[in-house]
Amino acid sequence: MRSLVLIVAAALSLSLVAPVGVGAVGAPTGPVDPAPVDAADGIVTPLGPAQQDGLNGSAVNETNVLVIPEGAVQRSGVDRATLNLGPAAEFNGNLTAVEVETAAVVEHVLAAEDDSERSRRIIQASSTVETEIITLRDRQQAAIEAYSSGRIDAETFVIELATVAARADALEQRIVRLTELADDVDGFSLSRPAEIRYELRTFGGPVRDRAVDAIRGTENATQFFVTTGTDGYELATIYDGSYHREAFRGAVRSGDSTATLSPTEAINVTRESYPELFRLGDSSATTSGSTNIVRVTAPGRSLTAFVDSGTGRVFKEYQRFGLAQYRSPSAASNTINGITVSVNRTYPGGPLRIHVENANSGEPIDLAVTLSQGQSERTTVGRTGDDGTLWTVSPRGSYTVLAVGDETTAAYLETSSTDAPSIDD
């Protein structure tokens, strides 16, 4: 988990929010291949496997993902993170407070008169960190509940998750320092330092790190998928030609701090959950107490799975894979005004490929693209560029893709997300 130092913070403009229960969660759907229908009047034409090959390849290679179960989803949306100076002071204050306190703790330990007192102070400081873990867990859950109920917006929610991650990272550095101080005391060692560090790592995530980059202004504005449920969240984004995802489900953790798994057992749990990735890459596992971290690496892909020893299930994941390697299970297309808009449909929060071309010549067209759901305000996603292609993250449920140029250049497509390839199916 890297240290998060925020210079400026973000505004996330929430405009695509799906109601509870929109979009099913289950096994991935197969390619759609009915007889094409006339799209001249705005009728959507699902594409079969052969037609998909011209868009994004014919082989479906979606990997399983950790998702909030359909019945537990409470709020879902696609939001945009961009530069905003507003919350910077609060974020920096949260991080700085922990770092200042760590310096004070170290000074307090070093000021002890003898090894016995120094050991006592180290134990006390370590216990304080364990108490802080409970506070961070409660704070994260409170943010999930607040966003789910609509009491806070996406901006506040993502910044709160980033703040929790930053504090956890700073606390892990404190444990590292306390462990070093304990090693300097003859005949004394700190109890459970590895277990504490592993627990602190469960609060991090690459997507929230990317959000911090966007709100700091060190990266361009980025589209994010956000879903919350009764027991967790999903975050996803696209940058640097790759899809990045993190998800957490608190309900599949047992809370049994005495439970253990061997590295081999943790790897086997992960293999059963993500069989596609295990066929492509190598795995490794580190275990400590009830938390096990399994990493799988393959060409252009990576997975970090957190496995709970008590339940023997994955409760958190980080995933990354290159967009060039992704093949979605189905696609749809619509032609209006001589312009064809095509999408490779994917699961809620999955990598959504949008392609715009001249219906007659097949030449790509560079147009601005927006997404909307129902009566919600349209969200600008970006432009299709010289190759006519734009990647973003898929909303949950039904949505409309609109490609716009000048007053006479516009086409749209109404479609919906597919079922998610859940690891629990």
Notes on the structure:
By secondary structure, this protein is of the alpha+beta class. Among the domains are: 24-63 and 328-421, Immunoglobulin-like, CATH 2.60.40; 257-310, no CATH class. It has eight helices and 21 strands. It has helices at 49-56, 88-110, 115-149, 154-183, 193-201, 206-216, 263-273, 275-278, and strands at 9-12, 16-18, 25-26, 45-47, 73-84, 222-229, 232-239, 242-249, 282-288, 291-298, 301-308, 313-322, 330-336, 339-345, 351-358, 368-372, 379-383, 389-393, 398-404, 410-416, 420-421. The strands form four sheets. Strands 1, 2, 5, 6, 7, 8, 9, 10, 11 and 12 form a ten-stranded antiparallel beta sheet that branches. Strands 4-13-14-15-18 form a five-stranded antiparallel beta sheet. Helix 2 (88-110) runs parallel beside helix 4. The longest helix has 35 residues, at 115-149. Mean pLDDT is 82; it is low at 1-59.
What's the structural blueprint in terms of helices and strands?
Blueprint: E1 9-12, E2 16-18, E3 25-26, E4 45-47, H1 49-56, E5 73-84, H2 88-110, H3 115-149, H4 154-183, H5 193-201, H6 206-216, E6 222-229, E7 232-239, E8 242-249, H7 263-273, H8 275-278, E9 282-288, E10 291-298, E11 301-308, E12 313-322, E13 330-336, E14 339-345, E15 351-358, E16 368-372, E17 379-383, E18 389-393, E19 398-404, E20 410-416, E21 420-421
Parallel strand pairs: 3-21
Antiparallel strand pairs: 1-5, 2-5, 4-13, 5-6, 6-7, 7-8, 8-12, 9-10, 10-11, 11-12, 13-14, 14-15, 15-18, 16-17, 16-19, 19-20
